[in-house]
Amino acid sequence: MRRYGLSDSQWERIKDHLPGREGHVGGTSADNRLFVEAVLYRYRAGIPWRDLPARFGDWKNVHRRLRRWCESGVIGQVFRHLAADRDNEYMMIDSTIVRAHQHSAGARKKGGADQAIGRSRGGLTSKTHGIVDAAGKAVALSLTPGQRADITEADPLLDEVDPATFIADKAYDADPLIEKLEERQITPVIPSRKNRRDPRKLSFRIYKNRNIIERFFARLKQFRGIATRYDKLKSTFFAAVQLVSAIIGIN
After folding, report:
1. Ordered structural domains, the chain, with CATH
2. Distances in whole angstroms, Cα of residue 106 to Cα of each of 100, 127, 230, 235
3. How far is CA 153 from the centre of its chain?
4. How, if at all, do strands 90-100 and 118-120 pair?
5. 197 three-class SS
6. Can you tell me whether residue 99 is helix, strand or coil?
7. Angstrom distance (rounded) from CA 75 to CA 77
8. Which of 13, 95, 112, 171 is the most buried (most CB within 10 A)?
9. pLDDT by residue, tens only, the chain of 251 residues
10. What pTM was computed for the model?
11. Alpha-carbon gap, residue 51 to 59, rounded angstroms
């Protein structure tokens, strides 16, 4: 296997969900695997597109094809398909800040499009929010400007999953979220804030499993093009986060 390439088992899990496969409507493509490996290589190494090794072909064609897949939702479909095979015993939510490189700024604001870049104490940043299952697989993801509060993404991400137990840190201790979890008969394992009058009982045996999502984000940020955002467009960067998360989940 080439450096940063897909293993045969990983390729088998995703190949039947890509456009251009045999029997698929439209033109067939014999180089889907090479293309996916080119995208993974670029984000793992954190290089400019024009520095892609020659074995992947013309970098402009690779980037153009990635944009087509972003716009048609191909990568999102692959992520959701793999995320459907999940462990519902317990899940956890958290977020991680991504520093936005100066090259990521300046995208044309067509119709006031939000590119998920904001200004916080660390400068220009984006924030990746995620829910991870007990096996360490990402099952729901979102991308926001870096100054966005963690709690704002809890509701929409929860709508995509149905765990028996939900683990989070104090940033998610809010009555509306707790009530929603209880209405759905999901057990919240969330420490109470210091100003809460009646602190909830907490199972520290279960809460200590929150390290699983921390380890997921650590693996995600081994991809240098994800640890630092270079992409101008939210759709491109988020598709990369989804693709890398999917590959991590089937390692």
Report:
1. 8-82 (no CATH), 86-232 (3.30.420)
2. 12, 18, 11, 15
3. 13
4. unpaired
5. coil
6. strand
7. 5
8. 95
9. 477 789 999 999 999 889 875 555 544 466 899 999 999 999 999 999 999 999 999 999 999 999 999 999 999 999 999 999 999 999 999 999 999 998 887 776 665 568 999 987 778 999 999 999 999 999 999 999 999 999 999 999 999 999 999 999 999 999 999 999 999 999 999 999 988 888 889 999 999 999 999 999 999 999 999 999 999 999 999 999 999 999 999 87
10. 0.92
11. 8
Q: Please state, in angstroms and rounded to a whole number, the distance separating the CA atoms of residues 234 and 160.
A: 20
Q: How far apart are the first and last CA of the chain?
A: 14
49's tokens: 């597109």
Please compute Rg for the chain using Cα positions. Answer: 19
Q: Which residue, 167, 136, 145, is CA-closest to 154? A: 167
Which residue carries 């979890």 as its tokens?
Answer: 181
Tokens for 60, please give them. 């402009």
